[in-house]
Amino acid sequence: MAYLEVQNLNKSFGKTEVLKGIDLSVEKGEVLSIIGSSGSGKTTLLRCMNFLEFADSGKMILDGETLIDGDSVKKESENELRKKRLNFGLVFQSFNLFPQYSVLKNLTLAPTLLLKERFKEYKKTEKDGQKRKEWLAAEKKAINDDCLALLDRVGLTEKANSYPCELSGGQSQRVAIARALALKPKILCFDEPTSALDPELTGEVLKVIKGLKNKDTTMIIVTHEMGFAKSVSDKVIFMADGIVEEEGTPKEVFGATKSEKLKAFLSNVTDKEGE
Amino acid sequence: MSFELINSKLLVGFGTTCLLFLLTLVLSLPLGLLIMFGLKCPFKPIKWLCNVFVWAIRGTPLMLQLFVVFYVPSMLFGLRIFSFTSTTVFDGRFIAALITFVINYACYFSVIFRGGVDNISRGQFEAGKVLGMTKSQIFFKVILLQVIKTVIPPVSNEVITLVKDTSLARVISVAEIFFINETEILTKAIVWPLFYIGVFFLLFVGLLTVLFNYIEKKLSYFKA
Ligand SMILES: Nc1ncnc2c1ncn2[C@@H]1O[C@H](COP(=O)(O)OP(=O)(O)O)[C@@H](O)[C@H]1O
Ligand SMILES: [Mg+2]
Questions:
Q1: Do A96 and B127 touch (CB under 8 A)?
Q2: From the CA of B178, how far away is ligand 2's center (Å)?
Q3: pTM of the predicted model, to two decimals?
Q4: Which residues pair with A9 in a beta bridge?
Q5: Count of CA atoms in the C-beta half-sphere (13 A) of A170
Q6: Which of A62, A160, B27, B196 has the most neighbouring CB atoms within 10 Å?
Q7: Alpha-carbon span B115 to A96, nearest angstrom
Q8: What are the chain B neighbours of A89 within 8 Å (beta carbons)?
């Protein structure tokens, strides 16, 4: 069994079937790209995997743990969902940084809130007030150092104390990527991370994503950048009308295209890129 | 009526007006937040109830509400909740006026707050969720300050209206600033108390305007 397995996932909005039995698998450290025309269900798929939407049926198993089983998620408590969400990170098309916090605080906020929960647990075992204080200070420092290291990784160390309104789109998206990484998700998802950017800013973001690729980082990337998908992916799937129309290595999908729909899609995209 | 007497009555009136204003503000803002949660409650009966309540309060004159709160309990049930005789500032009349103002303003604030929350993009809630925050963490750590920023202008309008609305408390004989002997002033044609009162309101509102401008400036470092 692969690291992440999605089996026969279905999702409808009212009468519109958006996902019609999606199957996919990703190994640890792999990069999976999802391509497909707009409206084919890519965003919905990522949102179901992040529990922002609830799948109607199907399965999702991550690292041996069953996260989705039929419509189980619909009955789960907010707290269970929250724990499940922490397995995944999601980078949105529109960044969604928190405007009132500095760049660094955007990164540290969620880990610090989780630290509060861990501190409650720790307090049960440690009664010594002085030790508690030291523990908390050390943990806070660790979060801060982690986040500074992440900012360095996305090349924005000097922006740590800036506010989101002072950043360019490319910088905002790099902060959003660092923010998602701060929680050390098992799988990092991207939903068209460069679609909201001016063309001259997409390069810096794609470069950062490429730089993340290593044996421990597993990524699922929805993208319209075919060149990028070709070079960064271990595996590509092409979605059309809520099903996986074609899948394989970048070589197979882009080099030896089988499906007519994918051929049409690719020629359409390359036409546009040529313009 | 001597200058001293009118003057001291006016000063007491100022005090009562200020107290009524401050207490109303301090109590109606959190209550407004609470009603806002009711207006947005996914549980339909609560949502419906809150909507009807807000509609009733916003749809009837404040003066009527003052009469209802003060007189109806005793008229219908013979209950003397609010003692009719003045002893201290916190007498029954004052309490009745305060309750009425708090409820009335909380309803107006709740609608403003709802608009503020609805204005926050869905992405902010979702970013919080994806980062493993609880609903209350998302509200208090992510959403609230953005809502405060967007509602400052409409809230400041309401607050300035409140300063002036306090004078309505006179209809249930709360000894606020206008509660001076009208006939005496009129028959003797004493004009200065009216100026006095006018200046008081202008200064009060001026101070609030400065305060709200300050808050707006403090929050201008980010774009909600
Ligand atoms: N919340 C929703 N309610 C109703 N329909 C939706 C909703 N979200 C997405 N859809 C529909 O699902 C289809 C797939 O959308 P989406 O997953 O965003 O596609 P993609 O990301 O591939 O462009 C579209 O037809 C869209 O209108
Ligand atoms: Mg999409």
A1: yes
A2: 62
A3: 0.88
A4: A22
A5: 15
A6: A62
A7: 20
A8: 130
Spatial CA neighbour of B50 closest among B30, B28, B34, B35: B35
Which stretches of chain A are DSSP H helices?
42-49, 78-85, 103-125, 129-153, 169-181, 199-212, 226-232, 250, 260-274
Q: Which atom of ligand 1 is nearest to the CA of A37?
A: 22
Kindly report, residue by residue over A91-132, the tens digit of the pLDDT: 999 999 999 999 999 999 999 999 999 999 999 998 899 999
Is any atom of ligand 1 closer than 6 Å to the C-beta of A159? no
Domain that holds residue B123: 3-222
Q: What is the CATH number of the domain that holds B10?
A: 1.10.3720.10
Q: Please write the tens of the pLDDT for every residue from A175-186.
A: 999 999 999 999
> If you measure from the C-alpha of residue A39 to the centroid of ligand 1, how many angstroms do you get, rounded to a whole number?
6
Mark yes or no for CB contact A183/B131 under 8 Å.
Answer: yes
- Mean pLDDT, all residues of chain A: 94
Query: Do the chains contact at B221 and A163, CB–CB below 8 Å?
Result: yes
Which of B135, B141, B222 comes nearest A109 by C-beta?
B141
Query: Measured in whole angstroms, how far is the alpha carbon of residue B39 from the centre of its chain?
Result: 19
Among the residue ranges A146-160, A170-184, B65-79, the one predicted with the least confidence is B65-79
Instruction: Show residues of chain A in contact with B152, CB under 8 Å.
Output: none
State the total domains in chain B.
Answer: 1
Beta bridge partners of A208: none
Spell out which chain A residues touch chain B, with contact meaning CB-CB distance below 8 angstroms.
50-52, 78-79, 82-83, 85-86, 88-90, 92, 94, 96-100, 109-110, 113-114, 163-165, 179-180, 183
Q: What is the pLDDT of residues B188-211, one digit of tens each?
A: 777 787 888 889 899 999 999 999
**Contact by Cβ (8 Å): B50, B56:** no
Q: Which of B35, B43, B44, B36 is nearest to B116 (CA)?
A: B36
